[in-house]
Design a protein that fits this description.
Shape of chain A: elongated
Number of strands of chain B: 14
Number of helices of chain A: 11
Largest sheet of chain A: none
Oligomer: heterodimer
Radius of gyration of chain A: 21 Å
Strand order of the largest sheet of chain B: 6-7-8-3-9-10
Order of helices and strands of chain A: HHHHHHHHHHH
Distance between the termini of chain B: 35 Å
Structural class of chain B: alpha/beta
Strand content of chain B: 25-35%
Number of strands of chain A: 0
Helix content of chain B: 25-40%
Distance between the termini of chain A: 55 Å
Shape of chain B: elongated
Radius of gyration of chain B: 24 Å
Structural class of chain A: mainly alpha
Strand content of chain A: under 5%
């Protein structure tokens, strides 16, 4: 079978498509991933903070019905499979972007899928902060907002960075999936050429590039997380 | 002046309620170094957290310089807390900030501008002898150094009170001493009131002027350190002061027991018991002894076993009390 896949004329054809289509596709994937993650962080990070501080024993307790509602919404959004979610938010996408196809249009469902995830990741990062340090800040007369801004978030930066890396790689995976429903980027190429037109080589090339991107994000993210952690300084 | 009035604290847990503090009343004069000592679970940490209201008491009040903290709004309470600094067993430094910025932390909270805060912080680091570590991160310091940074940080807002919650319990004896000396020095130079929470007798002995012994959430005994430690009255105090005096040798001894208290007696270089044997012919067995010499003076306690005979007991008592600073009493149940 490999003789079929790697037949000279197929390799030549694939190489042509790779040269013409891939640069744009890579750019689209990277741009959608980074932008979506960024928006997801803008919404998810404050929510994650609320999930921790609004707790009964948190620094800024909120009414329990509010906390429960927040938790239910986050869990709901997280349990809907991404492709279904993408279809469900078509009306919203159309309202915001004007269309439901194309690279920019996928940012809407990606953000909606990713922000609850980011909120949970933020929550787990902030819960790692030593409660004694929060008590110390309280004993010095810190207000809840000061505790959040000067203690909880700065103290969990390394953990937040490594969780941001998890978020960005997950969003990258979703963005590739979005290719099946009109999204752009490497996912679209893999599906359109590889799945619909049986050009296995193109699919393999697209997948390899996705793997390389994940590796790249992960390596950079881990490096940043480790180098930002002052506990590891010797 | 810190007045703790009839303070009680009850925690409600899944398995019922726990009375951590029962009707605790203490008054701590300004400029004092006041020790609160007790075994684990005696309620020490809860008590210290009630002083700055990190823990809300169930009953009773904490009055500092005439102001009842319980009656303040959240905002007023936060202002007040800047006057009540606290250092902890685990140091609780911000691990992602360097030492200088750790000391700046309370100043930032109080709204001081960056440049001024830095200048102030450097001065404070110098006071605790760590100016050269300003740029180092807590993880790069030893435990003793971390506690020094924590002390510098605690002093940044010129507090009137310093609460030390087991501040030396995680440190080795030498480091403990140097930290205690630092605290004592700060007390002498600034007149800050220090409240020391500890389970270590040595800490109280070394720096405190007054002490309260906490047992099962209640104050078992309180007073001047020399008084409480030389003549412990309550069972809890005796357990703390003479931890090994419950020995079987004491329990099973058949005869009479004489408790000999050395309260600064000029006896450090005198072979007192041997001399008593030689001069009076009294053969005493030392059932328990916990004494130490400071200069030529002896402090501590000894439990002598004597034959069951009134004359012998009286002679021994007389002989021993001839030396000044020795109190000898017959006891029936150990110390």
């Amino acid at each position: 079978m490999f003789e079929d896949v790697f037949a000279p004329e197929k390799v030549e054809e694939a190489w042509l498509i790779i040269q013409t289509q891939f640069p744009t596709a890579i750019w689209e994937t990277v741009y959608v991933t980074i932008l979506s993650t960024l928006f997801a962080v803008v919404i998810g990070l404050p929510l994650g903070v609320l999930l921790v501080t609004g707790d009964k024993n948190g620094v800024l307790p909120l009414p329990s019905w509010l906390m429960q509602t927040l938790n239910v919404i986050i869990n709901l959004l997280r349990s809907v499979p991404f492709l279904i979610l993408m279809i469900m938010v078509f009306p919203l996408t159309r309202a915001i972007v004007g269309t439901v196809v194309g690279t920019t249009a996928t940012i809407v469902p990606l953000v909606i899928a990713a922000f609850p995830f980011v909120a949970r990741l933020t929550e787990s990062s902030l819960r790692e902060v030593n409660p004694n340090i929060i008590e110390m800040a309280q004993s010095m007369g810190a207000s809840p907002l000061q505790i959040i801004a000067k203690v909880m978030i700065p103290e969990s930066v390394p953990s937040l960075l490594s969780n941001a890396t998890i978020a960005i790689t997950t969003v990258l995976g979703y963005s590739a999936m979005s290719g099946i429903l009109g999204g752009g980027g490497l996912g679209k190429i893999a599906i359109n050429y590889g799945y619909y037109r049986y050009k296995d080589l193109i699919m393999i090339a697209a997948v390899i590039l996705l793997i390389v991107l994940v590796q790249l994000f992960q390596t950079v993210g881990t490096k940043l997380a480790v180098s930002s952690d002052k506990r590891l300084k010797r | 002046m810190i007045e703790i009035q009839k303070l009680s604290k009850t925690f409600t847990t899944a398995d019922g309620s726990v009375e951590a503090l029962k009707n605790v009343s203490l008054s701590i004069p300004d400029g004092d170094i006041f020790g609160i000592i007790g075994m684990s679970g005696a309620g020490k940490s809860t008590l210290v957290r009630c002083i700055n209201l990190l823990e809300r008491p169930s009953e009773g009040s904490v009055v500092i310089d005439g102001v009842d903290l319980g009656g303040l709004t959240e905002k007023q309470l936060r202002e007040r807390r800047r006057e009540i600094a606290m250092i902890f067993q685990g140091f609780n430094l911000l691990m992602q900030r360097n030492c200088l910025r750790n000391v700046c932390f309370p100043l930032e909270l109080a709204g001081m501008n960056r440049g001024e805060a830095r200048k102030k912080a450097l001065e404070l680091l110098e006071t605790v002898g760590l100016k050269d570590k300003a740029k180092a991160y807590p993880a790069q310091l030893s435990g003793g150094q971390q506690q020094r940074v924590a002390i510098a940080r605690a002093l940044a807002t010129h507090p009137k009170v310093l609460l030390c919650d087991e501040a030396t319990s995680a440190l080795d004896p030498n480091t403990t001493n140097s930290i205690l000396e630092l605290i004592q020095h700060i007390n002498e130079t600034t007149g800050i009131t220090v409240i020391v929470i500890t389970h270590q007798m040595s800490v109280v002995e070394k720096i405190c002027r007054h002490v309260a012994i906490l047992d099962g959430g209640e104050v078992a005994e309180q007073g001047e350190v020399s008084e409480v430690f030389s003549r412990p009255q309550s069972a809890a105090a005796k357990r703390l002061v003479y931890p090994e005096s419950d020995l079987p040798a004491v329990q099973t001894f058949e005869g009479r027991l004489l408790r000999v208290l050395f309260n600064g007696a000029q006896a450090a270089h005198t072979p007192l018991i041997t001399r008593m044997a030689a001069q009076k012919g009294i053969e005493a067995s030392i059932l328990y002894a916990s004494t130490k010499s400071i200069g030529d003076k002896a402090y501590g306690l000894m439990l002598l076993g004597l034959p069951d005979d009134d004359d012998t007991v009286n002679t021994a008592k007389e002989y021993l009390t001839q030396t000044q600073g020795i109190i000898a009493e017959e006891v029936t149940d150990g110390v």
